[in-house]
Amino acid sequence: MGTDGVVDGEDDVGGGLSVQYFENFAAEETALARTDLAVANFHKVVADLWLLDDDASKRTRTNHATRLSALDDRFRTETEKVGRTAYAAERAITGYLDHVAPARR
Description:
About 70% of the residues lie in helices and about 0% in strands. The chain has four helices and no strands. The N and C termini lie far apart (about 50 Å).
């Protein structure tokens, strides 16, 4: 044990990894917050995540439109908080997946 009360090497094993993870996460989130994102680009991201086939059924198209509307609402809300950025898009998509999208069983 060191003089600071920490077991030797402990900060490298537990705390060091956590701090490094947090610093990397914070840097990524900061980069997203500094990246302007137009609504059209947000729709492109959504289209890449939720593909819609040309021959999709009416029900599938309706579900897709409902999802896009919900995501647009969340993106609008997030842009009011953090600006029209990639960070707002991430928050909107994550919020949708965490709180709106039906859970698959």
